[in-house]
Amino acid sequence: MTPTDLTRFRLKEGTVRFMTIPELSVSKTGSHIAEYTHDRLSFMRRVVTECGALGRASFQGRPVLVVSGPEVMHETLVEKAKAFRKWPLIRLVLYPLIGEGLFTSEGTHWRSQRRLMAPIFKPDQVATYAQHMTQEALRSVLHVREGEGISVADLTTRIAMGVVGRSLFDADMCARPGPGTGHQASEADQLAEALTVALRWTDEQVARVPTYIQLALREWLEGLGEKRPGAVRRLTEHALDYLELPLSYRLSRRKTGVRAAVQVIDASIERMLVARRKAGLAGDDLLTRLLRARSEDGTEGLTDRQIRDQAVNLFIGGHETTATAMAWALHELAKAPALYRQVQAEGDALGGRTPRMDELRELSTCMRVFKEALRMYPPVYAYGRQAIEDLTIGGYEIPKGTVVLASAYGMHHNPAVYPEPERFDPDRFLPEVESARHRSAWVPFGNGPRVCIGNHFGLMEGQLVLAALSHRIEFQASPGSVVLPEPGATLRPNGPMTMTARLRNRSEAPQPAALLAQEAEIAALV
To answer: Does the keyword RNA-binding apply (predicted)?
Structure first.
């Protein structure tokens, strides 16, 4: 859709032309796509400052609508969700890694997979994973010594990997050093490294001009295929299939970089599927449930490729995003001693045990801290959509083909929605305050029909891990250290976020015999 097409769009009565939406000024980089690539958070804040809830930008000559207000966010993600598809750019760059998973699939295929997986994430099922969350948090700090410098980002990543590993794969995903042994690399380490390489590669593709050229070619072929019958249509379909993967991926060497990373992921999941089938699908982990899953009439299941794609989706969503949010929560707690003491008091009341579901309300400060961390540092900081029909957003005509960037970060830092948005304030999520806000004012998991299927899982994990960690360890920020959010595949810290560990509820650091006893005690629960 070109600017000329947009100005010619036929208006309905009472609406306003797309080209009259406030336009973001061009920064020193000389283009909006360059700014988005190199300083995304500044880009999203500038849209709010200059344009408000709706702003207009240009990515490689393509008009982009940036949404940063609750009402227009609700229109985009909830009320008019059927008028959009995922932005094809996101699907293109993520396809080598997650294929036709829930995050990238569309239409009937997406709906059928969502129905098959929904029972796995019902509240009563999510509750069964609570013990995993507390146990993994406790295991992670068994060998921590008083005054030791800890990379909090690495710690929360290992915890989240352990939780999703046991819940999804029924496997211990994090090898841990025993007394006097040293760390031994596990398959989980290789899988985590492969995911990191693949996610870094996908982020790099968003900024490459060839990616946009391939995207434009795909859209042209899609339009051509609709108009031409017979052999031309079949040829077009073959071309579209070939262009499903980024050409930079197809042309990359098979045993290096992203191709090697994807092979590691595929091989790991294939081994797990073989093991589940040999065990007669007798387990209760999510991977086994996916193998057993059937449609309502009992005839439709998931293929191995579909299970692989869903497993990767869930692994990324279950460890990458949650780990990042937990790290940011600990970062903010270290700067707020009084608030930290409230969190510690809630963890101490449990004494390290897993709470019953009816006791979760007693961890209200932990939940509010985690929600505020998700507001200030939303792991998924923007959602890309493309209009598949003409519609209106905020009273403006939005033509078919328009790219819409639903800016979670921009809205979460919009002072019209959250006064003093750069101040960490968990009281924003007191029940009475939260209920007074628009339901789409907080969207770290998205909203509408495509809301993250594991949102309840992630919220409970953050709440329980903060309580368990705070009972055993207090993290103190290193003097003079500055940690900033760095937007890549998720909004991660730009460094290791190293903090000093102070032991709590232990008179002294445990001796080797005590460490072995504690490890055995928790391993027995595992």
So the answer is: no
